[in-house]
Amino acid sequence: MHRSRLTAALVDVPEEHYRSVIAFWSGAFGVEAEVDDEDPDYASVGQPIPGLQFMVQRVDAPSRIHLDIETDDIDAEVERLETLGAERVEKIESWWVMRDPAGVLFCVVRVQDPEAFARDARTWQ
Amino acid sequence: MHRSRLTAALVDVPEEHYRSVIAFWSGAFGVEAEVDDEDPDYASVGQPIPGLQFMVQRVDAPSRIHLDIETDDIDAEVERLETLGAERVEKIESWWVMRDPAGVLFCVVRVQDPEAFARDARTWQ
């Protein structure tokens, strides 16, 4: 038995757009953006909807949006999502990058928001 | 003075992936998907986070995720977002398709979720 929930939406952009995209979404939602001290490739843009973390990520790839699913059992959640039709792309540190049946990337990550997770995560047998 | 909030995330996929992607995200979030009776290019996949509508859209374009911002004044919101660095792409029926400074598409739409809008929308002067 394990649990999971949608936890984040990330706008992934190459270096040349990183600052302007952080400024744009920060203004769009009216929240202060904060570049991560420990990993400056990530900037937090608050929670435009309570329980949904919004981030901008600097990537070496074309611009896109991806979603993060948080879980208390990454292996079990990745297997469950494979059974539903997703494919593994690569494991990076603690998380898995996957793609849905149309090739849309998403990540399966450790619990990021314990309070929302405790309240809203679904339980899978 | 007008108001706006993030209201939806949509997975846009071409025809050949439409059914499998609906089934995938429906299973991923554990909710029943419903293809829109009036417009079968849209399928609702519930609210994986309260206040965030999740949809799959059939498009004639490469697969991607886009976001919808709902507002009580589309013209004013589109102008506000332009000032922040977004560009207009096209107006479709009542809504505007825009792109952020990195080219990521999003839409500015009429209020979709009146209850969440009344509770959580930001006010812009």
Structural summary, described in words:
2 copies of one chain form a homodimer. Chain A is α+β, with helices and mostly antiparallel strands and 125 residues long. In chain A, 23% of the residues lie in helices and 41% in strands. The first copy, chain A, has helices at residues 18-29, 74-83, 114-120; strands spanning 2-13, 34-35, 42-44, 53-58, 64-71, 87-92, 95-99, 105-110, 122-124. In chain A, strands 1, 2, 3, 4, 5, 6, 7, 8 and 9 form a 9-stranded mixed beta sheet that branches. Chain A is globular and about 45 Å long. The mean pLDDT of chain A is 97.
List keywords for this structure.
homodimer, 125 residues, alpha+beta, nine-stranded mixed sheet, 3 helices
Short synopsis of the structure:
The first copy, chain A, has 125 residues and is α+β, with helices and mostly antiparallel strands.
Summarize the topology:
The structure is a homodimer of 125-residue chains.
Chain A: E1 2-13, H1 18-29, E2 34-35, E3 42-44, E4 53-58, E5 64-71, H2 74-83, E6 87-92, E7 95-99, E8 105-110, H3 114-120, E9 122-124
Parallel strand pairs in A: 1-4, 5-8
Antiparallel strand pairs in A: 1-5, 1-9, 2-3, 3-4, 6-7, 7-8
Based on Cα principal axes, name the global outline of chain A.
globular
Mean pLDDT of chain A: 97
Query: How many strands, which pairing sense, and closed or not: the largest β-sheet of chain A?
Result: 9 strands, mixed
List the helices and strands of chain A in order. Answer: EHEEEEHEEEHE
Instruction: Please name the two chains that share the biggest interface, counting residues whose Cβ lies under 8 Å from a Cβ on the partner chain.
Output: A-B, 41 and 41 residues
Q: How many individual β-strands of chain A?
A: 9
Which stretches of chain A of 5+ consecutive residues score pLDDT under 50? none
Oligomer: homodimer
Task: From the alpha carbons, calculate the radius of gyration of chain A and give it in angstroms.
Answer: 15 Å
Strand % of chain A is 35-45%
The percentage helix of chain A is: 10-25%
Q: Give the helix/strand class of chain A.
A: alpha+beta
The tally of helices of chain A reads 3
Distance between the termini of chain A: 5 Å
